[in-house]
Amino acid sequence: MAKQAGKRIAILLYEGASLSCGIDRNNLEYYSAIMIPRKRTETSIPQALTEFGAQFQIPEIQRVVPYGKGSINETFLVKTSGSPFILQQLRPAYDYGSLEDYEAITQCVDRAGIITPRIVPTKTGLLGTIKDNRLWRMTSFVPGVTLKRSPTSSQVKSAAALLGRWHEGLSTLDYDFHFKLPDFHDTPKKMMDLQAALTAT
Question: For the whole model, what pTM was predicted?
Fold first, then answer.
């Protein structure tokens, strides 16, 4: 019981730090599959990715390499004879509807003049494809940096300004989302679940 409660607390604290989805104590494995950082191994880099990536509408692929240290999806940098791209294997919880939502959001902010990764369709016009029972997507590559330490005041100011522009850009979006995670923004429920987990210890 204490071990399970400890796992529950770890998930809740992790989600609280990342402003992520809520927790269902009866479905810990489901949320773990979405949120808990995975351990990257060499076996998670399929050699067939170069051939697999060729089904997207991009120039000839020269090399596919792991990219970044994200906690949600498996991410690869696709180097081509032209611009680079990002190829991602999405977590099992995400379905094709999430790609439609992604496309609607990024299309909206793109029209507002905000640079954002855009989905690159397959050669058959799909927003993504299936490999090994997992959903994959290809997007344009937006260069940048990942901060691994506390940001400076100027960086915080810049991020806040961008966030404001992002929300302003989305203010014109009239769209019914296809994909939803249960209790994603239910902060009171998160706090109740955290309190219950702490009490259980």
Answer: 0.71
